[in-house]
Amino acid sequence: MFSPLAWTLGFALLGALILTLTLVPLLSNLLLRRNVREKHNRFVEIITNGVMRMFSWTYHHKRITLIIATSAVAVGLFLFKFLGTEFLPELDEGAIYIRATCPLSISLDDSKDIANRMRRIILQFPEVKQVMSQTGRPNDGTDATGFYNIEFHVDIYPKKEWKSNITKGKLINEMQDELAVFPGIDLNFSQPIMDNVEEAVSGVKGSLVVKIYGDTLSYTEGKADEVYAVMKQIRGVEDLGVVRNLGQPELRIDLDQQKMASYGVSTADANAIIEMAIGGKAISQIYEGERKFQLRLRYEEAYRNNAEAIGNLMVPTSRGSQVPIKNIATIQRLTGPSIIFRDENRRYSAVKFSVRGRDMGSTVREAQQKVNAVLHLNKGSEMVWAGDFENQQRATKRLSQVVPISLLLIFFILFIMFGNVKDAGMVLLNVPFAIIGGIAALLISGTNFSISAGIGFIALFGICIQNGVILISVFKKNLQKIKKQEFSHHSLEGGITQGVRSRVRPVVMTALMAAIGLLPAALSHGIGSETSRPLAIVVIGGLSTATIMTLLVFPLFFFWSYRKVGQEMD
To answer: Which of 200, 174, 201, 202 shows the shortest CA–CA distance to 189?
Structure first.
């Protein structure tokens, strides 16, 4: 998702680098031939004077400044634990997708009736434009499901046309309350594209899922019910339901071999009568032109419409007599599997749920802790958490690998540039100053930490490193001038102060232009803006603190690193 951003930014920087080293010097030679002088304006002077007054205080109160800066970094990093976490912000597709899961044994007529009644309820909301419902499996037959599955595609009007001042989340909650009048039906609210993606990821019709693997369906569904009982008490868990395998009523006939032997009944004869009486048995074929049909023999309904009638069916014996099936078999009603879910050739039962009104990371962590405390599985059974949470864990693991590698590469480039570890390490000190601003911006805006925010932190590091390079380069340049007595200031303090003054404008303008460029993305609430907003918020917030710290605190680290050189010059 973010690879286009990375490629675009990378090639843009490469193009800018090439033009800076080729075209810009040529244009400067052609256009800047006379009256070349640095121009000042009131805005820049106000910023410069303000920064220098604050720098003067920080420079003369170094220990206090260091304590304040260190405390700010420590508090900022500590506050990260209070950030909510999620995989990616939920994109608004401009529609709602509702899935209603009825009891597995529901008939087609009842399912159609419920779908019609639900559709009328949904259409009562003024924000809804139209509703399309579908009962059973999809048209292409790729999804094995039955009449118990009803799906609603709900088109809603654009937010600006809503007469009521409610959010989409509030609208979904109101729909859920209205549709709760149907007992025994599990509801799941999503969006059309999101619903397909979530099902492809988890294998279950739900955003998040707990899969319980085991040998028998009765065992796994019992454990699924235990998980359900725990999770319904957790704040933020919505659309909670058990994805059941069992639920199809069936009539089970168990033949007793000893009784069959005593009556002289063969297993083949008994099975043939049961097959012919209940399901029908092909006894011949009929031809109509080129078409061929099976001729099936089946008992009339009155002789097979209940367990008692089936028990009275007569089976021939080897003695030429007949015996009722109930005398040689046990007939009982059971609830058997309607559909058997498998993953990696293992049976499983599942508990599906969504998270609304709370961040996904803390909700799933709380659920895992409480479920693990009460659920005890037999040997050979396993519980797996999947869905969006699985994506988040995978992406977070990748970020934890990418960020250190990026910082190491940056350090290596800085080492090549400066030729020593000390200067390269000093430039990297700007990174924590940027992180605390990004964390603060996420907390203030109420934005969860997601992969988008993580990419924002990586982008932020580059800008902060650039500002550090700008300052440390001018400091070392002034230091060389002082040694050669080419500088009006003859002390390390003067070189640092003059360096800060001369670089206020490029540092502030670099940060300001980046922040202004991302401001529309940070303030946008249109469709599709959810992914870019955390990235923009992180960069803007991080630049705010990084710019202040770069101009006020970073020079102090340079002073402490080169104070021996300053003492020698004195």
So the answer is: 174
Rounded-to-integer distance, Cα 193 and Cα 196, Å:
5
One domain, residues 426 and 553: yes
Nearest to 479 by CA among 565, 370, 351: 565
Is the per-residue pLDDT at 122 higher than 90? yes
Count Cβ atoms within 10 A of the Cβ of residue 107 and give its class: 0-12 exposed, 13-18 middle, 19 or more buried.
Answer: exposed
Residue 284 near residue 267, CB atoms below 8 Å: no
Q: What is the pLDDT of residues 513-540, one digit of tens each?
A: 888 888 888 887 776 677 788 888 998 9
| Residue 273 domain boundaries | 259-327
CATH number, domain containing residue 139: 3.30.70.1430
Burial of 326: CB neighbours in 10 Å, binned 0-12, 13-18, 19+: middle
Could you tell me the pTM of the whole model? 0.74
In a domain, 452, yes or no: yes
Q: Among 277, 305, 327, where does a domain finish?
A: 327
* Dihedral pair phi/psi, residue 355, rounded to 5°: -125, 125
pLDDT tens-digit map of 11-50: 998 999 999 999 998 888 888 777 777 677 788 888 888 8
Q: Which residues of 378-395 are buried (b: 16+ CB within 10 A; e: fewer)?
A: eeebebebbbbbbbbeee
In a domain, residue 230? The reply is no
H or E element in which residue 250 lies: strand 246-255
Which residue is associated with the tokens 């918020």?
537
The rounded Cα 461 to chain-centroid distance in angstroms is: 24
Write the CATH number for 302.
3.30.2090.10
Within this chain, do residues 435 and 565 fall inside the same structural domain, yes or no? yes
Q: Which residue has tokens 């460029």?
A: 517
Amino acid identity, position 459 = A
% of the chain beyond a pLDDT of 90: 15
What is the secondary structure of 408-455 as a DSSP string? Answer: HHHHHHHHHHHSSHHHHHHHHTHHHHHHHHHHHHHHHHTPPB-HHHHH
Question: Which strand (E) or helix (H) includes residue 237?
Answer: strand 237-243
396 contact partners, CB below 8 Å, separation of at least 6: 85, 451, 454
Query: In this structure, are 461 and 426 located in the same domain?
Result: yes
